[in-house]
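Minimal example, chain plus 2-phosphoglycolic acid.
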Amino acid sequence: MRVPFIAGNWKMFKTIASAKVFADEFKDLKVNKEIKVAICAPYTQLAALVEAFKDTEIGVGAQNVHYEAEGAFTGEISLPMLKEIGVDYCIIGHSERREYFNETDEAVNKKVKMLLEDDSITPILCVGESLEVREAGEEASFVEEQIEKDFAGISADKAGNVVIAYEPVWAIGTGKTATPDQADSMCKTIREKIKALYDESVSESIIIQYGGSVKPANSKEILTMGDIDGALVGGASLKSEDFKGIINF
Ligand code: PGA
């Protein structure tokens, strides 16, 4: 059985002080043991969140990592640096990084591979099509190609440790959620692609989240679909009440 996983993505919001306020309000959350929960925050807030959540089941994640362990890469953060803080997850290849920071599938693939080889931080790999691609009816082949490139060279025994987040770009931060059927159908397509690349034991165990304007009002209908195992939540994870509402769907 797949354990549902709901992660917040704070993007470039909050400060250390406001992250601590959130953690105080949020850590009493009664997480149903059948659901995993994490907050993916800006780098500067990670140590404070790891400390604030240390006696809870709530995980902490980063939003990016460089694929080299160290080097002359001004402004970047490496895996050993994240491990030192003690984070559990790292978002890789979010559409905002692909779009505004020119992150390619090749770079995404290197990052996912590095995390899997090291095996201490779980990658949350984001894929998803733009509005143009969906309007052209090419969303399935587009996302399948992202999966193929992002999983290149990753062996079956490691692949199942990736969390995949399907986030249609047109639904991110727009208030325009994919319908539960649209979201579930793409998550199913992704699961079938994973089965084709690996085998059924990998495809049936891999966690596939949906992301894009998930909020308390729509979380239940999305999270109860058969191929959707959780959510990656942006805007609605910034307020502890809203994020609790989503988790307690
Ligand atoms: P949103 O963002 O929930 O604000 O649409 C989701 C994401 O970008 O992960």
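The CA atoms of residues 66 and 78 lie 5 Å apart. The mean pLDDT is 96.
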